[in-house]
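Mods, move this if it's the wrong board.
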Amino acid sequence: MLEEGMTSKIVDKKAYKTKVAKKYTTFLAKYPEIFSDLINGSDFDFALYDSLESYDKRSPVDIFHVYRNGNGIEIKPGSAVDSDLELALSIDAIEKLIQTETKVEYAQLLGTFYNNPDEDKGWIDFMLHKRTQTLIDMGYGKFAQTAGILKHDD
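Not the wrong board. Structure tokens:
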């Protein structure tokens, strides 16, 4: 499943506070092709929440960001300096996402958690930090279409 030549690197693995973040970053590092549609320089946050209450308070249990470099991705602890967007995920959603085996399966499950959020089964949300068209031009739109989050006529 690995696209030829796509690399991944987890920076400072000890900096992650939670087991779920360690498992999720390990999963993402194993499948860097999830990010293959993004242009070089794309950088976005993954905020992990243990409840809707913590999400409402904007207090994630852990946060990391994925930076798309020339030949792959770097996964780094903490928020990006100038994040393109924040992907907020429930721990329940992450536990299911890390069991997927392809980019399409991952994207479609992510879309399910966005389109049909469920407090018990899992949910995700996005906070865009740049204009929608800018994000589409950066490659996020292609992934969002695969996920069923962005329809072709949006």
